[in-house]
């Protein structure tokens, strides 16, 4: 791609470093900004710079926050006995959207993945162990992805917590609500058979 | 979507105003920036702001430029007698990439589209007419999209230039090189039959 302007080329170069944004898309986005009023570009730049320089991670759960302790961790109506362990902030948002969880979170910041150079030291596992050792936590729900990396991370956390009193559970794997059996893969279907629950208790779910 | 941080929400709001970027994608991009070193966000913001505030449009062809007259317009090896009329800068880049065009350009900034509120007054048509009236231009190649809006714009320009000496041509419509006949739509195939060229002159093309 040959550009008629160095400024344009620099903007496209920077934009195309974002994941999933190729140079053609980057050019389209940058030309869109040029057609919009100047304050729109100002606001975009400003909000990105603000976010990057002023963002705080909650010192308890490591969720993104505007305050040293996030709103969830500082909410007295949420139980500190129940902690849900997730990979990143998007998982917190997804679980919050269900309205089903009244405990607190622990955001690992990823999962153990030697292929991507992510070991246990890169994740907030040590601080999870310390949180549990303080004694308030009764149950830990491991809510990581149902992938090999997720399973590895689950197992690593489980081993680190051996000798503590905490109950460790994982979220249920099974057929998604609304799905047809015939389209489910056999591993999921197998797990949903093994982890079957009494019909009467399924009636109590909403 | 409920955010745990106002700063994050603002960044996602701004990012999702870009075309084709929904709120989920915006969140993914913003979280990616948070995981990268701070200088990457700085550079992105800086290059967008720089582009928006310092960009110049060439006073002759209206292409994006770093100088008052762009590199193409100020190149003495390019003919001022042949002008290719295009919609936007991406078309200039596409035609430059062919290496087949040795004239200069005129960037309209869009095409006439009443549905989108774009009339002739929003486009650089008047300055094209003035360029032609100055007398140096011998031929105008209309290279707009083969759509109704493109055809309308072509016709409008043609009418505006009635009474001038300039030759007006349009780029050839036909079967794309490398395509099978059976997959061509009937309008394109029809046009390629009507606009057939002597076989011997086709041999001279590369």
Automatic annotation (TrEMBL), chains A, B:
SUPFAM superfamilies: Recombination protein RecR. Keywords: DNA damage, DNA recombination, DNA repair, Metal-binding, Zinc, Zinc-finger. PROSITE patterns: RECR, TOPRIM. Pfam families: RecR_C, RecR_HhH, RecR_ZnF, Toprim_4. One of its GO terms (biological process) is DNA recombination. It comes from the Bacteria. A zinc finger (C4-type) spans 58-73. The keyword Zinc-finger applies. Residues 81-176 form the Toprim domain. GO terms for molecular function: DNA binding; zinc ion binding. May play a role in DNA repair. It seems to be involved in an RecBC-independent recombinational process of DNA repair. It may act with RecF and RecO. Belongs to the RecR family. This is Recombination protein RecR.
